[in-house]
Automatic annotation (TrEMBL):
Residue ranges occupied by any HTH luxR-type domain in the UniProt entry: 144-216
Family matches, as SMART domains: HTH_LUXR, REC
Superkingdom of this protein's organism: Bacteria
Annotated organism of origin: Streptomyces flavovirens
One of the Pfam families matching this protein, by short name: Response_reg
Keywords for this protein: DNA-binding, Phosphoprotein, Transcription, Transcription regulation
Protein name: LuxR C-terminal-related transcriptional regulator
Length: 219
């Protein structure tokens, strides 16, 4: 996989590069500031990009802005965004443009090598990888929405796992229920939220759920 990295912390940037190259990937470019990101992405057109949310010169949202600009120019570009903390506004803005090929992880997940690599590969394949803490805060922020209040505790658990990009079998194993039970919960969730069933692929389920959470399908 050909990857572009944007991270201002030199130690972390080199660590990610070493991790990726030792796993068989190729880092075709790396950037340390916001203005460097979009030109590198347009020049190399990588298979995926790993971008820090906050980059110089202002350390506000340069990485996010670069991600949004890149998706405007390269709509199918998979992007995995890294953040030190949960930035709800930034996560919401990124996901509002569509969840396919998008990931949002906290930086401490990078240290969990297998999880980080799995998330990157899932995003590169067009899926979604959301940090559980990000999902939890997005759900909590919308907890006052009437349709969401109608979900049972188990349905909320299933919804949270769905938004992390997990397949039915994985959800069933983690919740210690049957896969059939998970399917029934998902059907109930879509019905209660007023969302039409889709073709069952993970990224479309996540897109539908996140679209609701961001208010697109609010009654």
């Amino acid at each position: 996989m050909r990857i572009v990295i944007a991270e201002d912390n030199a130690l972390l940037r080199e660590g990610i590069i070493l991790l990726l190259t030792s796993s068989g990937h190729e880092v075709v470019a790396d950037a340390a500031t916001g203005p460097e990101v979009l030109p590198a992405l347009l020049e190399h057109r990588p298979d995926a990009a790993v971008l820090d949310v906050r980059l110089p010169p202002t350390f506000r949202d340069e990485g996010l802005r670069a991600a949004l600009a890149a998706r405007a120019e390269l709509p199918d570009l998979p992007i995995l965004v890294l953040s030190q903390y949960v930035e709800e506004t930034y996560a919401a803005e990124l996901l509002a443009r569509g969840a396919q090929g998008i990931g949002y992880l906290l930086k401490d997940r990078v240290g969990r090598v297998d999880q980080f690599l799995q998330a990157l590969e899932r995003v590169a394949a067009g899926g979604t990888a959301l940090d559980p803490e990000v999902v939890s805060q997005l759900l909590t922020r919308k907890a006052s929405a009437r349709p969401l209040q109608s979900l049972t505790a188990r349905e909320r658990e299933v919804l949270e796992h769905m938004a992390q990009g997990k397949a039915n079998g994985t959800i069933a194993a983690e919740l210690v229920v049957s896969e059939r039970a998970v399917s029934k919960h998902i059907g109930s969730i879509f019905a209660k939220l007023g969302l039409e069933p889709d073709d069952g692929t993970v990224h479309r389920r996540v897109l539908a759920v996140l679209a609701y959470l961001e208010g697109r399908n609010s009654p």
